[in-house]
# Entry
Amino acid sequence: MLVLLFEFLSQYISALNVFQYLTLRAIMGVLTALFIALWFGPAMITMLTRLKIGQYIRAEGPESHLVKAGTPTMGGVLILLAIAVSTLLWADLSNRYTWVVLGVTLGFGLVGGMDDYLKLKRQQSLGLTARQKYISLSLVGFAAACYLFVSAPSAVETTLYLPIFKEAQINLGWLFIPWVYLVVVGASNAVNLTDGLDGLAIMPTILVSGGLGVFAYVSGHAVIADYLGVPKVSGAGEVVVFCGAIFGAGLGFLWFNTYPAQVFMGDVGALALGAALGIVAVVVRQEIVLAIMGGVFVLETLSVILQVGYFKASGGKRIFRMAPLHHHYEKKGWAEPKVIVRFWIITVVLVMVGLATLKVR
# Structure
C-alpha cells in the first residue's frame, strides 16, 4: 500500500525513492510487525483473560503442565494481525505472491481459530474433529496449489530443486499440485505439533522465516540467483517483506510467550505459521531446504508418526516416553526451559546449514 503512495510522492520528493528498495521495505516490515505485536500484546492478553479464553490441558500430558491451565490462548490472532498489517503496508500489492502467501496464512489461521473456538466452547482440549480439520486445511492447501500451477509463467515455478546438487531437478508437471499440498499442510501440522512448550515453536519459526527470507531475496534477484545457481523466480523477491513480517511479529509474540508464558498462540497461530513457512518455501522453490532448516519441526512430527505406528504394531509398546519429542525429554526429567533452549540451538545450527547450501552447489 505504502509502496504505491511513496512511488507517487517521489515525483515531488525524490528522497522517497528509497522506499522502493526491497531490503528497506523488508526491514520496515520487521519493525512494523514487531511494534504492532508489542503495542497490542498487553491489551490482547488482558482481553483474553477477561473473556476467560484460557488453555485446556490434556489429561494425558505431563503433570508439570497442569499449572498452565487457564493461561490465555489464541494469541496467534496477535501474530496474524501484525503480519497482515505489516505486509499490506510494505509489500507490493500488485505482486501475486504477496496475496498467495498472505491468503494461505490467513486461511489456515481461520481453520485454527475455529478449532480453538470449539475447544473453548466445549471446555476441553478437543476442537474440530480430525476429519473436519483435514478437509478444511486441504481446501485451502489445494486452492493455493492449483492457483500456483495454473498461473506459473514457466517450468521453473513447478520444478523441484535439490540443494547441493546443482543440476539435480525434477519437473513435477501436474504432480506439483499434490506436492504443494503436502508441503503446506505438512509444515502447518508440524509447527502445530511443536507448539507444546513456552516459546518452543515461535523461535524456530522466527529463525526459519529469516532463512527463507534470504532465499526469497536471492530467488527474486536475477544476477545473484544466476551466480549462486538458485532458481530465478520472477517476483519472488517481494516475499522477503512477508518473511520480515513473520520475523517481527514472532519476536513481538515471543516477548509474551517466553517461559513462563503469559499467552499461548493456539492453533490459530501454529497452523497459520506452519502454512506460511510451507508456502514461502514453495514460492522460492526451496522445499527441501525448509525441511533442513525446520529440522526440529520434522523430528517432532516423525516422533508422533513413529510412536503411533509402533504402538499399534507392537500391541501397546512405545518408542518414546511420550510424543511429540519435547514431551519425551520432559518425562526424562529435563526442565522445560532446558528443552526449549536446546531445541532453539539446534534450529540455529540447521538454519545455518540451510543457508550454506546457497554456496555449496
Summary: The mean pLDDT is 92.
